């Protein structure tokens, strides 16, 4: 129904995702949003529609993939996207239908009684430049395993993406392989095991690849192994522009979120630097070229996962300082939200509803004093499924025709 109602105009929609923005009381009964000093967000909240969205379903803790798909207007229960494909796309790898994409971490391992033991799952978070050097070394040493082409791409710090390109298309389920990362130091890497008949062939190639990686990186002081996660095949998805009539772009630093945007057909904007200021500068430069802008800010989530509520508060306050320069662009619709909640006290993603602020000329407003979890509960949007957020953005930008006579 929605696609049949979409109509085009010149309005601009800006979606800002403060990753993991939702929280729980962490000190003095206050959440990170409540602790933060946010005069600009508070002023905006008073004249906006507020509410909370549920990323996937009640009580379900979402990964970043499902969390973003929902706010992009795709049902996360319909599309199950592996992190490998997102990492590969975000790093600019061209993913084909015959590929298995994998997300990896460089790690430090030691031999003990003939067994590999993980000493550091992230290889001390090696600098990105060191990552590039080591990845180049692997690229030169490992080009093919049993007729399967291998491609490596360096990510940020310890992260890496891999593509296994098979000579022919693979049957569905070929990516059903257990992660090799046990998620804890002091253990052995998990052997890649195919969980379906179709994936057993892929798992055997992965095992041989890991043996070769160990051989090539044996003399590296830190990053001497790779832990693999998120094995995934390329999904078939309708493009964002076709679905919603919006020419869209993404301004994001981290590869995974660039990959998510690329997956639905958004253009990826390249820019210098990694700060919020750098991202806003990039936004300004392309403002006339697109209808829809996705701007992603990561560190709110990173600090939440570290249990560092002070760090999360500082990022929120930093964003607040830059909000006036964003408002100068005068988007017809501005949405500020998160893909999921990451309470510092949980040190991870959670199932809690996510704060939403929607600003447009057509809101009731006047229901809330601040952009916080408790104030969002008072807002006119209520609590709603994340996949319906796109409906609200389209409606407030006057891009939906009337339904029925």
Written account of the structure:
Helix 5 packs across helix 9 (255-263). The chain is α/β, with parallel strands linked by helices and 405 residues long. The chain folds into two domains: 2-79 and 237-396, Alkaline Phosphatase, subunit A (3-Layer(aba) Sandwich); 86-232, no CATH class. 32% of the residues lie in helices and 20% in strands. The protein is built from 14 helices and 14 strands. The longest helix is centred in the middle third of the chain and has 20 residues, at 197-216. The protein has an eight-stranded mixed β-sheet with strand order 10-9-11-1-12-13-2-14, with helices on both faces.
Explain briefly what this protein structure is.
The chain is of the alpha/beta class and 405 residues long. It has helices spanning 2-5, 32-35, 39-46, 64-71, 83-90, 128-141, 197-216, 240-244, 255-263, 276-285, 299-305, 309-327, 373-376, 389-396; strands at residues 13-18, 49-54, 99-112, 115-120, 144-145, 148-154, 159-165, 225-232, 248-251, 267-268, 292-297, 333-337, 354-359, 382-385. The protein folds into two domains: 2-79 and 237-396, Alkaline Phosphatase, subunit A, CATH 3.40.720; 86-232, no CATH class.
């Amino acid at each position: 129904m929605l696609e049949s109602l979409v109509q085009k105009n010149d309005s601009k929609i800006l979606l800002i995702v403060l990753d993991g923005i939702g929280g729980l009381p962490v000190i003095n009964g206050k959440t990170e949003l409540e602790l933060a000093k946010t005069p600009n967000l508070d002023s905006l909240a008073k004249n906006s529609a507020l509410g909370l969205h549920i990323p996937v379903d009640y009580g379900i803790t979402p990964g970043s993939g499902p969390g973003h798909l929902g706010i992009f207007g795709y049902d996360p229960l319909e599309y199950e996207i592996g992190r490998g494909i997102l990492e590969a796309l975000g790093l600019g790898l061209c993913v084909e239908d015959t590929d298995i994409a994998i997300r990896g971490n460089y790690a430090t391992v030691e031999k003990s009684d003939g067994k590999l033991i993980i000493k550091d799952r992230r290889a001390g978070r090696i600098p990105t430049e060191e990552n590039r050097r080591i990845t180049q070394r692997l690229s030169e040493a490992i080009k093919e395993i049993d007729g399967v082409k291998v491609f490596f791409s360096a990510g940020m710090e310890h992260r890496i993406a891999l593509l296994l390109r098979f000579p022919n298309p693979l049957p569905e389920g070929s990516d059903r392989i257990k992660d090799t990362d046990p998620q804890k130091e002091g253990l052995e890497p998990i052997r890649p095991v195919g969980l379906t008949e179709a994936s057993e062939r892929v798992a055997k190639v992965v095992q041989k690849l890991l043996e070769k990686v160990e051989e090539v990186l044996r003399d590296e002081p830190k990053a001497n192994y790779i832990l693999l996660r998120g094995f995934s095949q390329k999904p078939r998805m309708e493009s964002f522009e076709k679905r919603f009539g919006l020419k869209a772009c993404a301004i994001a630093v981290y590869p995974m979120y660039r990959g998510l945007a690329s997956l639905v057909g958004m253009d990826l904007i390249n820019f210098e630097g990694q700060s919020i200021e750098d991202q806003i500068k990039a936004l300004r430069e392309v403002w006339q070229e697109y209808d829809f802008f996705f701007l992603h800010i990561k560190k709110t989530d990173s600090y939440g996962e570290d249990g560092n509520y002070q760090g999360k508060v500082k990022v929120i306050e930093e964003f607040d300082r830059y909000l006036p320069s964003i408002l100068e662009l005068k988007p017809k619709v501005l949405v500020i939200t998160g893909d999921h909640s990451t309470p510092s006290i949980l040190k991870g993603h959670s199932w809690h509803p996510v704060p939403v602020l929607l600003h447009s000329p057509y809101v009731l407003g006047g229901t809330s004093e601040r952009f916080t979890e408790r104030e969002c509960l008072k807002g006119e949007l209520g609590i709603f499924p994340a996949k319906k957020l796109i409906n609200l953005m389209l409606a407030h930008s006057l891009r939906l025709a009337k339904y029925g006579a």
